[in-house]
Amino acid sequence: MRLSTGMIYDQQMRGIQTSQASWLKVGEQLSTGNRVNRPSDDAVAAAQAVVVSQAQAETAQYKTARVFATQNQSTEETTLKQVADVVISAQTIVVGAANGVLSDADRSSYATQLEGIRAQLLNLANSTDGNGRYLFAGYESDKAPFVTDASGSTTYDGGLNPITQKVDASRTLTTNHTGKQVFDSLTSSAVKEPDGSTGESNIFTILDTAINSLKVPLDDADQTAVDAEAAKLDIANRGLRNSLNNVSSVRSEIGTNLQELDNLDSKGDDTALNLKTQMSGLVGADTTETISSYTMQQAALQASYTVFQQMSKLSLFQLNS
């Protein structure tokens, strides 16, 4: 078979193009750090990489969700700690006001202190986060959860469902409790009234009971009236004790949630590392091997150029010159 100059030229060009393509491919692997940069590089590995990539995206999404959940729970815990401190102060005042030898002026002074505490609690109950959303309003976080009517009674007007967040594939946590759960609920262990009935759950109503009682003049009252107001203070004292226990119960739940979020974060970090390792095994390039291959392909390409230059001198025109 005779080989023409044109055929020799075409053959050499194809060799150069092949060497150049191989060199460029290894160069791409070296620059990206990936052995598989497109499905045609390794169809099976590319398909498996898509699945792993989706798992990585889901893991990252849950990590972000846990960040927000931790922030919300931490903010709520900080607020409830203040609530607990204020309730304890109210208890101290009510106990002090129950002293039967106090004058009407002393009782009025205690009532004024409780009014200040009530205002503090209402402010805490209507707290907002950094974005202006009400902490204890549930999903109706665009409006104040507690409202006071013309008679001075304060009631809950927020959402009935606490805000929840999915923080892992199979775990959903409460990130914000409702004001109803915090300021208008009783635990199962709540102290009952002497007649066996369930006590008042609304902490603002409880404080109102004590405030109104302390404003009743008793300097010239008979024993019946004195005993009646003392009984009201006892009711308020039990109510505050129950309210504090309820707040403590919510705080305990928050503490458990925060601990679980930490555990889920640790688990998520392990999962992310495992997925990264899997992805690297599927599409990652071995740096040492890739550099070696790059050098070899570069040498092969240079050799192709050299052969082409030498062969080009063997044309019939040059031989006849």
TrEMBL record:
Identify the InterPro entries for this entry: Flagell_FlgL, Flagellin, Flagellin_N
Record-level GO cellular component terms: bacterial-type flagellum hook; extracellular region
Q: Which GO terms describe its biological process?
A: bacterial-type flagellum-dependent cell motility
The organism's superkingdom is given as: Bacteria
GO terms, molecular function: structural molecule activity
Q: Where is the Flagellin N-terminal domain?
A: 4-139
In terms of Gene3D superfamilies, this protein maps to: f41 fragment of flagellin, N-terminal domain (1.20.1330.10)
| Residues spanning the signal sequence | none
Where does it localize?
Answer: Bacterial flagellum; Secreted
The transmembrane residues are none
Instruction: Give the keywords, sorted.
Output: Bacterial flagellum, Cell projection, Cilium, Flagellum, Secreted
Q: What is its main location?
A: other
Family label: Belongs to the bacterial flagellin family.
Name of the protein in its database record: Flagellar hook-filament junction protein FlgL
Protein species of origin: Erwinia sorbitola
